[in-house]
Amino acid sequence: MKQSSSSSYDLVVVGGGPAGVIAALRGRELGASVALIERSRLGGTCTNDGCVPTRVLARAARLAREAEQFARYGLDAPPPTLEFDRLMQRTQQIVYTIQEKKQLVKGLREAGVAVFTEAGAAYFEDGHTLRDQAGRRYGADRVILCAGGRARRLDFPGAQYALTHSDVWSLKKLPRSVAIIGAAATGCQLASIFTAFGAQVWLLELAPRLLPGEDAAVSQTMRQAFEERGVCIQTGIQSVERIEPRQGFYEVLYRDGGQVQSVLAEVVVLSVGWPGNLEPLNLPAAGVNTERGYISVDDCLRTSASHVYAAGDITGRMMLVQSAGYEARIAVENALRSPGECQPYRHQIVPHGGFTDPEYGSVGLTEEKARQVEPDCLVSLVYYAELDRAVIDGLPVGFCKLIASLRNGRILGVHVAGEQALEVVHLVAAGMSAGMQVQQLAELEIAYPTYTAVLGLAARRLIAQVGGGPNLAPEWRSLGKTPLVEWERRDAGPAV
Ligand SMILES: Cc1cc2nc3c(=O)[nH]c(=O)nc-3n(C[C@H](O)[C@H](O)[C@H](O)COP(=O)(O)OP(=O)(O)OC[C@H]3O[C@@H](n4cnc5c(N)ncnc54)[C@H](O)[C@@H]3O)c2cc1C
Predict the structure, then answer these.
(1) Which among 395, 305, 392 has a CA at the least distance from the CA of 357?
(2) Please, is 156 exposed, middle or buried when counting C-beta atoms within 10 Å of its C-beta (0-12, 13-18, 19+)?
(3) How many CB atoms lie within 10 A of CB 130?
(4) Which residues are registered as beta bridge partners of 482?
(5) Is 31 exposed, middle or buried (0-12, 13-18, 19+ CB in 10 A)?
(6) Is residue 66 very low, low, confident or very high in pLDDT (cuts 50, 70, 90)?
C-alpha cells in the first residue's frame, strides 16, 4: 500500500509542458505557493515528443536535400546515405541536450515551486484535492490544468496497425513506404521528412486540400512541391474504411468518390487530431465540464468550476508552444485575481508554420477570412523566383502573399511558402502588433539579399497595384504613383 502524504498550496498546476512550466513560474512571481505535478518528464510534448524531435528529423531531411545541390555549386561528393538508427540516436540525444540546457526542475525549484515529476497521472479526488499515482495528496486553493493532448486514434477496423508520430521515434529502420492519414501540420511534416529520406509516401486527407487551416495558396504550393518530389496525395476522401495486414505491408482501404480505393505501405501513420488528456483527471469530481474532447473555458480561461483554470493544448484553442505559454500566464493571473476580475485572452497575432520542404509560415488572416471582413482588401503576390536571394541559393520555389486593408492600410496577414518562411513572417508579426501600415513596410530598408526582402517587394507591389484609390491617405497616393524600383525581375513565377 502506497503512503499518502498531504500538503496544501495556493495553486496546483497539473502538467509540466510549456503551459504548466509558465503557469508555475508566473504563480510564484505573483507570490502564490505553487506545486507542479508532472506524470513523467518536464518539457511536455514540445521537448519530448513534438517540436524538438520532429525538428531534428526535419534538419536531417534538409541536409539530405542540400546535398542534392552540391554538383550545381561545383562540389563533388557522393550522395549521402541515411543510417536511420544513428539519426534516431541523434534525435534522442538532442532531446536530452535540450532538457539539460533548460534545467527546468532546477529553475522551478529555485523559483520556489514544489515540483513532482514521474508522479503518474494526477487526478481530482474532490474539487480542492488532487492525488498522484505515488499516493501524494495536494490541497489546492486554485488549480491550473495544463495536461496537454495526445494523438487521436480512430476506431475503424485495423486502426490498431497504424502508428502515430509518437511511435516514429522508436522505428528501427526507415520504412520503404509510408501511408499518412491526415495532411495537417504534423502529417505534412512527416510526409516531407520521409520523402526526403527516400521513402514512398502517400498522404490521405478528408479535407479538400492539404493544410486546410492555411491560406489556399500555401496549400496549393505545398501540394505542387510534394507531388514534384513524388508524394502521392489524395485529398477530399470520404472515409478510411479499414487497414489490413498483407505480408509485411498494410493495405489502407479508403472511400473516394463513392469507390473503395487502397494503398499498400510498410507503415501507416495516423495524424488526425489532438484531443485533450482528459480521462485520468477525473474532472467530474471537480465539476469541470468538457466539450468535444477539450476542457471548456471562458474568455478568462476559467472552467465551469470557478477555482479551476486551464491553459495550453487541453483547451483546444491554439495548439502551439507560444500560445500555451501565453494562455498559462493569463490563466494564472486571472486565477489569482479578486473574484469577478478577469483579463480576457486574445490570440490575435500568432506567427506559425511548418518545417516542410518548402517551409511555410503565416500570421494574421488568410485571404479567404480577410475578404469575409473586408471584401475589397488588398492582396499582392511575389514569387520566390523573383527574389535574388532565392535565385542565388537555388531555392526559387515559393511565394509571399501580403494582405492589407484598403480602408486604413493596416496589414491583415502574410503567408509565405519557401525558404526561411517561418523566420520571414515574424517581421510582419512584429509590425502588425505595432499597428504597422503597408507603406511603412514598403519603405523599410530591408537588407539585401535576404529572404525577408520579399516582404518589402510585396508591400511595394501592393501599393503600386492600387495606384492611389479614393480611400487612400495622401501619402499612399504619392507612393502608389512611384514606379517600382527593384532589382528583382518581375515576370511571373510558377502559378500559385
Ligand atoms: C509532432 C508535433 C510537432 C509540433 N511542432 C510544433 C512546433 O514546431 N511549434 C509549436 O509551436 N508547436 C508544435 N507542436 C505543438 C506543441 O507541442 C504543443 O502545442 C505544446 O507542447 C502544448 O503545450 P502544453 O503545455 O499545453 O501541453 P504538453 O506539451 O502536451 O504538456 C502537457 C504535459 O502534461 C502532462 N500530463 C498529462 N496528463 C497529466 C496528468 N493527468 N497528470 C500529470 N501530468 C499530466 C504530460 O506528460 C505533459 O508533460 C507540435 C506538436 C506535435 C505533436
Answers:
(1) 395
(2) middle
(3) 25
(4) none
(5) exposed
(6) very high
247: Cβ contacts below 8 Å, ≥ 6 apart:
none
Ligand 1 pocket: which of 13, 46, 363 to mutate (most atoms within 8 A of CB): 46
**pLDDT digit string (tens) for 432-449?**
999 999 999 998 999 999
Atom of ligand 1 nearest to the CA of 186: 1
- Nearest one of 95, 106, 2, 103 to 56, comparing CA atoms: 95
Crossing angle for the helix pair 185-196 and 51-67, to the nearest 10 degrees: 40
CA 277 to ligand 1: nearest atom? 38
Residues above pLDDT 90, as percent of the chain = 88
- Amino acid found at 484: L
For residue 128, count other CB atoms closer than 10 A to its CB. 18
For residue 477, what pLDDT is reported?
A: 47
Q: How far is the CA of 148 from the centre of ligand 1 (A)?
A: 5
Going through 127-223 in order, the beta strands assigned E by DSSP cover 129-131, 137-145, 177-181, 200-204
Task: Output the nine-digit C-alpha cell for 150.
Answer: 495526445
Q: Supply the pTM of this predicted model.
A: 0.92
> How many Å apart are CA 275 and CA 293, to the nearest integer?
5
CA dihedral 46, 47, 53, 59 (to 10 degrees): 90
pLDDT at 470 over 60: no
Nearest to residue 380, comparing CAs of 317, 457, 270, 483?
A: 457
Quote the pLDDT of residue 141. Answer: 97
Alpha carbon distance 294, 291 (integer Å): 5
Q: In angstroms, what is the span from residue 455 Cα to ligand 1's centroid?
A: 32
Closest CA to 15 of 337, 333, 325, 289: 325
In one-letter notation, the amino acid at residue 186 is T
Using the mean position of ligand 1's atoms as its centre, give its distance from the Cα of residue 42 in Å.
Answer: 10
With 0-12 / 13-18 / 19 or more C-beta atoms within 10 angstroms meaning exposed / middle / buried, residue 495 is exposed
How sure is the predictor about 372, in pLDDT bands with cuts at 50, 70 and 90? very high
- Give the separation between CA 272 and CA 184, rounded to whole angstroms: 8
Quote the CA–CA distance of 296 and 417 in Å, as a whole number.
34
Pocket, ligand 1, Cβ cutoff 6 A: 14-20, 37-40, 44-46, 50-51, 54, 121-122, 146-148, 165, 186, 277, 280-281, 312-313, 319-322, 324
109-113's contacts with Cβ under 8 Å and 24+ in sequence apart are 111/24, 111/25, 111/28, 111/29, 112/28, 112/33, 112/34, 113/24, 113/25, 113/27, 113/28, 113/34, 113/35, 113/36
- For 160, residues 6+ apart whose C-beta sits below 8 A from its C-beta are none
Cβ atoms < 10 Å from Cβ of 134: 15
Q: How far is the CA of 196 from the centre of ligand 1 (A)?
A: 26
